[in-house]
Amino acid sequence: ALQAADQLSKEGIEAEVVDLRVLRPLDTATILQSVARTHRAVIIDEAWRTGSFAAEISAQIMENAFDELDAPVARVCSAEVPMPYARHLEEAALPRVETIVQAVEGMVQVSHV
Question: What pTM did the predictor assign?
Answer without folding.
Answer: 0.85
